[in-house]
Amino acid sequence: MKRITIMVVMMLICAGCGISGSGKMGQENAQQSNDGSQLQTHASVRKGQAVTVYTARHYAADTALFAAFTKETGIEVNEIKGTAEELVELMKREGESSDADLFFTVDGGVLNYAKRSGVLKPLFSDKIDQQVPPKWREPEHYWIGVTTRARVIVYAKDRVRREELSTYESLTEDKWKGRVLVRSHSNLYNQSLLASFIALNGEERAEQWANGIVKNLARAPEGGDRDQAKAIAEGIGDVAIMNTYYVGQLSVSADSAEARIPDGLGVFFPNQETTGAHLNISGIGLARYSSNEGNALKLVEYMTSKEGQSLLAQGSFEFPVNEDAEVPELLKSWGTFKTQKLDFADFETYRQKAIGIFERVGWL
What tens digit of pLDDT does each residue of 102-136 get? Predict the structure, then answer.
């Protein structure tokens, strides 16, 4: 593993200061040191009853949630942020001396990777079981779903009729030539999307789809999901493959120009008549060598409670797993939708095949 630099910032709320990686299992918007690796710690640095969360998420909404938990319980939360891969390797290296109490990340495949790596242990709670439906809980209790996110088709309302949209596969048709926007193949979200197609339809059909998308691109893949939305607004392309929550986050941007972009965007959940829209998950697991299981459990119970879930949904625009949570009106406006029926572990199982497809078809 690369050398890891640890920076300690003694703050309880640090909006936007988290680091998430661009490594194989990492997240977007990484801010890395010269050796390509960095971890960051913030919140309380006192030991004892504080809960230490090793997190690959970089959302201010998470830190706000932890602050609300501290205010309610008096239990402080330490966040150590890095890429998921870095954090798992750190936990393995630290072994029994690890400070980690919880591991928090996006993507079902990454959660399965953490389980297979032996850094987690089962987490049991009747309260969590009441708050989180079984479909969002790992069967052997190695992780609990906290939020979900759909990867869908976002389109220009003034140039695309909703009736023109149907499936992910339809984006490979000739009528979309020069009109499709998407980020690069190195992005974990795209890797899991294609992995889901391999699991559902086989490798050959998945490759045909990826090749068809490449032929219809409005430009070479670049930027993050926000950049795809901006490119639609600028007329560079007409449809984009994006995660839904980016539309919500743009709508509350402090930049007035960005905040207006969602007004011209439509959100379409593909494959409603077939396999359903692609859904991924953010989840949290109990660290194998946690020295503070009791308070760690209290934190997860709070995160999955109606109050905690409502805070997360309002802050991140992800979908809550607790069905009693209050969600933003924008999410409600999209209505209900059918989702793929897959084991989230499939995203890891087929990830390398997905990467190979991307490279063969020139989706770089």
Answer: 999 999 999 999 999 999 999 999 999 999 999 99
One-letter amino acid of 54: Y
Closest CA to 280 of 251, 311, 242, 249: 242
The letter for the amino acid at 224 is G
- Rounded to whole angstroms, how far apart are CA atoms 41 and 111? 21
Q: What 3-state class would DSSP assign to 141?
A: coil
Q: What is the value of pTM for the model shown?
A: 0.88
Instruction: Give the C-alpha separation, 316 to 59, whole Å.
Output: 7
Binding-site annotation: residue ranges for Fe cation: 58, 245-246
Please give the Cα distance from 202 to 213 (Å, whole number).
Answer: 17
Query: Which residues are annotated as part of the binding site?
Result: 58, 245-246
Spell out the domains of the chain, with CATH numbers in brackets.
6-148+280-333 (3.40.190.10), 150-277+339-361 (3.40.190.10)
Q: Which DSSP string corresponds to 19-47?
A: ----STT--SS----TTS--EEEEE----
Q: Mean pLDDT for each 10-residue chunk of the chain (364 residues)?
A: 32 34 39 42 56 96 98 97 97 97 98 98 98 97 98 98 98 98 97 98 98 98 98 98 98 97 98 98 98 97 98 98 97 97 97 98 98
**Which amino acid is located at 234 in the chain?**
E
Task: Please name the amino acid found at residue 33.
Answer: S
